[in-house]
């Protein structure tokens, strides 16, 4: 037989506090390391990782560098990227980017295509949020999303008010260096 020092409610609150403190310290430590590595907050003349550079080049946040994409896939080295030079999967994705139908994907076309995809993704996210927000108050709650999904969504509840806004979800999905 064990003797409980705290009630279940108190024990749960202590666990949340400890976990929250640990996560906050980890985020601050990671942010401080990134801050120091980038020359006290600057990028040291390098593009930010979420813009298609470095080890996070495949991260979905932000458009990739079109010039780098052209250089990477320009098989014949003529400085021009054709749809045919892309891998098969990328041909489908970037084929629509050739808006002037000249067979060459310019940096401007690639950048415009990336921006259009980001806007489309944002619109889809907004529609999904609105669909789950059954009462239209701008927040998701346990009752609206169900117990199973709430267990994942509640991590974004920054102010711990029992409801999650679209802004809280966006902030939770940003990489730590971008917050």
Summarize the structure.
With 179 residues, this protein is mainly α. It is built from seven helices and four strands, in the order ααβαβαβααβα.
Largest sheet: 2 strands, antiparallel
Q: How would you name the oligomeric state of the polypeptide chains in this document?
A: single chain
The secondary structure category is mainly alpha
- What spatial order of strands do you see in the largest sheet? 1-2
End-to-end gap: 47 Å
Order of H and E elements: HHEHEHEHHEH
Assess the beta-strand content as a share of residues.
under 5%
Shape descriptor reads elongated
Mean pLDDT: 76
Helix coverage percent = 40-55%
Task: Compute the number of strand runs.
Answer: 4
Low-confidence stretches: 40-59
From the alpha carbons, calculate the radius of gyration and give it in angstroms: 22 Å
Number of helical regions: 7
